[in-house]
Structure formats: C-alpha cells, structure tokens
Amino acid sequence: MNTRSSNLAEALASVVAKIERQIESGGDDPSGVTMFLAGGLAVHYYCHTRYTNDIDASFSHRVNLQTKELLATFEGYDGRPAVLYFDPNYNPSFALMHPDFEASSRPWENFGGGVRKLKVNVLSPVDLAVSKLSRFSDQDREDILTLASLGLITADALRLRATEAMGYYIGNQVPLRTNIDLIAVAVKNL
C-alpha cells in the first residue's frame, strides 16, 4: 500500500474510532456492530486506484450518530489536504443490492488504527459492482470495469448476482436490465 493509500486508510480509522466513541457514549458496546463499506472506499480497498472523500456505509444495527463530527483530514491523492467525511445520505435501500450483501461482505484485512470493537467489512467485489448499477454514472462504470480488469468479478457472476437482486427491487427495472447488459458486454470485452 502506498503512502497516499495509507493516508486514506488512516483517515478512515480515525472516523471509525469516532463512531465507536459515539456508540460507547450512548452506553452501548460497539463490539456487536458491523459497518459495511460501499462506494469509493470499497473500490479503493480492492483496487487502490480510487480515492474518495466520503464514506458510504451502512450498519448491522441501527445507530444514532452525530455525523457532522465524523470526519478526518488526510493527504489526498494530489498531495493536497483533503477531508474524509461520513455521508449521512448513503442508504443501501436506494441502490440495487442483493439481500445477502452483508453476509457476503469481507472483513477489512489489516485495518489500521489498532484493535477496534466496531467491525469494518467491505462489500464483496460482485456486490459492490451490483450496487453501482442503479446510478450507473461514468465513475460507477469505471469502478465496475476496474474490478473486472483485476479479475475480481466476471460478467457472468455480475449478471447472476444483479438478476437475483432485482427480485427484491421495486421500481422500473428496464433501465437496470439495460445497465446490466451494457456492463456485461464491456466486462467480457476487457
């Protein structure tokens, strides 16, 4: 892991420590809580090619957090000071997500900042890719292709997981089917 990548991980560890303190200050033990990372930080975890300033995360339990306090400064990719902040607007219910995404997540190996009671997991590569199919921005497509180029997902696995997830999705599925078809072709052509 390079220094700038390490800086981002250290900033995340700082925010996780603040989340732990907030949970503990409410009289609860954070050791039974898991935080599930998605978005740019999850892509960064697997690929070390993506830098982000926000933390997209959900939790295994409902948590009451003062999100304005959940930030940390770090040296950004360009060498300038940057801020990593917890995004209170992230919600996995608004994305295409497989219902088993939590069970399929992986612990963040060698997570910095010492021993943590709060567990930090990262969406599996295929669930991360599926989560990006709803919005399907240029960045989302690039993230999916990066995961595929590193051999972390295949077109068939992505199509299968996304199709299963659509069984739990409410809304117009036509754009999703189009997005799945487009990215599956792009992944196969890598």
Notable characteristics:
6 strands, globular, 190 residues, Beta Polymerase, domain 2, alpha/beta, 6-stranded mixed sheet
Structure, briefly:
The protein is α/β, with parallel strands linked by helices and 190 residues long. Helices cover 43% and strands 15% of the residues. It contains seven helices and six strands, in the order H-E-H-E-E-E-H-E-E-H-H-H-H.
Protein described:
The protein is of the alpha/beta class and 190 residues long. The chain has one domain (3-188): Beta Polymerase, domain 2 (2-Layer Sandwich), CATH 3.30.460. 43% of the residues lie in helices and 15% in strands. It is built from 7 helices and 6 strands; from the N terminus they run H-E-H-E-E-E-H-E-E-H-H-H-H. It has helices at residues 3-25, 39-47, 101-104, 125-131, 138-149, 155-166, 174-188, and strands at residues 34-38, 54-59, 71-75, 81-86, 106-107, 119-122. Strand 3 and strand 4 form a beta hairpin. The longest helix has 23 residues, at 3-25. The mean pLDDT is 92.
